[in-house]
Amino acid sequence: MRADLEIIQQWIPQGSRVLDLGCGDGEFLAWLKTNKAVTGLGLEIDAENINTCLTKGVNVLQQNLDLGLGNFDSDSFDVVVMTQALQAVHYPDKILQEMLRVGKTCIITFPNFGHWRCRWYLATKGRMPVSKFMPYTWYNTPNIHFCTFKDFESMCSNGNMQVLDRLAVDREHHNSLGARLLPNLLGEIGIYRITRRG
Questions:
Q1: Superfamily for the 3-112+145-196 domain
Q2: Which of 13, 59, 104, 175 sits a CA distance of 20 to 30 A from 125?
Q3: What is the pTM of this model?
Q4: 189 pairs with which residues across the strands?
Q5: SS3 call for 134
Q6: C-alpha angle with apex 151: 158 to 19, nearest 5 degrees?
Q7: 111-139, pLDDT tens digit by residue?
Q8: Does residue 175 contact residue 191 with C-beta atoms inside 8 Å?
Q9: Distance between CA atoms of residues 110 and 143, nearest Å
């Protein structure tokens, strides 16, 4: 299992109802079903990934996240998960509100574009960063909303969302002392657990 998913699974209670947005090949939901007895459903847009989910016994629907989650009732799930997709949707604030409408808590991961390597690359080369971590050029990237941890937390505060847990990790998903002390500068990936305030 991917290292970020190993971290996330610790925040998912045994036997809970889980919705995984952009579930890919269903690896995570299959693991949760086997190891945590969750009732899971994945949303995915790629037909090949959907076929792989089905071969793994993962319940999946083909759905574009930009169209919202209107086909689900409020509080249908205990946990809604979205890994490495927030920056690729057209309206991150709206999808987060929808996630919190259909789920009690949400777990989100996304790259931190305020990381020192991004800042250094932009400052010294005068171009948008390209690296192993962010291998796309500005014109072919699936990432359409670049944000930092501070940006995300400000959006949560303005949107009546409460951050329950936060980890700032490097590309190997290690949570170093530096990333804990200066997350916006030294964390490459944010892993957040949020809920509705009040």
A1: Vaccinia Virus protein VP39 (3.40.50.150)
A2: 175
A3: 0.86
A4: 111, 169
A5: coil
A6: 75
A7: 888 777 777 777 788 877 676 666 666 56
A8: no
A9: 10
